[in-house]
Amino acid sequence: MMLYFENLLDSLQSAGINVVLFQVRPQCDAWYKSSYEPWSCFITGKQGKNPGWDPLFYLTEACHRRNMDIHAWINPYRVKLTVKESDYKEPFVRKYRHLMVKYGRSLWLDPGLPESQRHILRVVREIVRNYDIDGIHMDDYFYPYPLAGQAFPDDKSFAKYAASQGFTSSQKADWRRHNVNTLVRDLHKVIREEKPWVRFGISPFGIHRNLKQDPDGSKTNGLSNYDDLYADALTWMREGWIDYCIPQIYWEIGHPAADYTTLLEWWANHTFGAALYIGQDVARTMKPHQLSEKMSQARAQSNVLGNCFFPAYELEANAGGVVDSLRRDWHTYPALVPADNRDFHVQPEPVYSLDVHSDYQKGTHLAWKTVRSKNEMKKPSYFVVYRFQQGKAENLQDPRAIVGICRQPFFSFPPHPHKGNWVYHVTAFNRLHQESASERIVISVQ
Question: Of 81, 112, 136, 180, which shows the fewest CB atoms inside 10 Å?
Fold first, then answer.
């Protein structure tokens, strides 16, 4: 499995991907060493069996070696996607059965129970505290997708808690949104308490509300994130509880019920200061050959900072030539991860003593020194090396100038296009992806 992950990350890196969302908790289980939940059956085939290695630790190290960020992706409430009789005998299910409800064929933590929320907060605090991750991520599974003719069985928790929380008997939908909002708010607080540089993001269902439900809704006709999943993404962004939002705009351009262009524009106008990335379904994009138009439209929106491609194995397989197109047309030059943490604006210490060195192991290379700071967010996490021909504009916003991204304070020179004087700039980036002032040097190539 380790070799598979190494090859997968190499494949993603070659496609220009710089952030990986890795699902570490598919259903109240763990792809990491957890004090609260069992090892996932998706690793070894048996729930609770120790695989003998720590996938999250391994993936974190592997991503950082490639200068890629990693966000730990969790599913908050789902216990079992398809529950079997034998599942009720598992230690975790037995211990927390009082928090669980069965809906259709699935088992869920009841979001209306404060103890369910406290359990999820403990889980996330442990992940953030114990792993050098760059973000915590959740997708669209809050209250489950509705099943025809079946009501979610939360009457008991509603009767027990709703009135004391200010909700009447006719406000169950508002109460459910309150439960999700409380969890999101408290997760933001827990993450900030543990490691302020860790970002918190969510990928909601692509339709927030339809115009027929809300005069500020989108001109669409589909399931509503707000009304059907009880997930109020606009409140999360408005209140500053999430750093970034990745709406799952998986439909085609021209889709009769949920047009990509309509939804892209709607979300771009409803960010409330949060970073916005667009969730792209690879198969549904490549089958009608719409990647070029979708990417063009997304880049034309000033509030859109990038794209998130789902799932990774479609990129690995180069489905429909998606990777070929990304390399050739869209990810030709390196892209730096945006500074999308909303609460902190800290410029890291710049490098100094930039000079040319030569030794047996590294050959001729640039090297520099850094200031040691006690402030974690001022410490350099990685460095970016820019190169310009002397006499030309030295624009550090031009990705074509990036010749290297590294985590060590040295960089071996790449081949130069021709002889002459070349200007190098080196900047430091902190864990928040905020850039320092640059240090500049001119070298002569004979």
Answer: 81
